Give the backbone structure.
Amino acid sequence: MELIGGILLIEIRLSIGYDEYEEGARMSNLIEKLASGPDSQQLSILTIGDWGQAYENSPDSFLDTLISHKDSFPSLKKLFIGDMTFEECEVSWINQTNLAPLLAAFPNLQSLSIKGSQDLSLQPLVHEKLEELVVICGGLPKSVLEEITSASLPELKRLELYLGVEDYGFDGGIDDVLPLLQGDLFPKLKYLGLKDSEIQDEIAIAAAAAPILDQLDTLDLSYGTLTDVGGEVLLASERVKKLKHLNLSYHYMSDELLLRWKQSGLSVDVTDQQESDEEDWRYPFLTE
């Protein structure tokens, strides 16, 4: 519970542990209880963690309940579906579903965060007020990328995508990412995160000359397998130099290139340097 600008903001997290689920607890019941409780009208931030054996069950088990009680949550601005630790469920095991009906149900929503990409869909991805979209996963399917690049989100200011690796669901390539770099999809976008990718060098090379940089404040290419190949191109980019901040944390760049970044005078995060293993394999941050 927080008071900002004279407005009371209430944040609630719902989660069901393994033993609770075995004893009959269900997320739909928790939502019904919340909807009838004293905080429902002022609820601003709702986080849904483990809904009970998420490696077997999808949000379909409670989605209709949440939507049917939409009028009980008129102040809801921020929604997170799937906020769970790896002890509760590995990210690549989290079952999702088509979450687009939530956007239709909550027209005043400003932020939607999702963890897990198994069977995830956002079709149709249309919303007049959404300012932030975050998808955290081990591998983002090409189908979801296509839904995002076909979206109508005129107020979107922050887009953060964990692209991941093929073994955990990423079945696309650089051509599927390129539409996000053109600058004509989301006119108000200020932060673009294309993170945790096994093709981070390709993305970096494409991003270095991309029109989208002319409108961004922050480009986030962290958590991936970035090496000197991509890092050199970014450092030489005039468009990159105009950014307010560049996040390259968790990377495989050399000591020599790190020194050049630090001497560049740019606002850049190059912390968390990684070392390739003896077979020169490189892994993004969020893998299992």
DSSP finds ten helices and eleven strands in the chain.
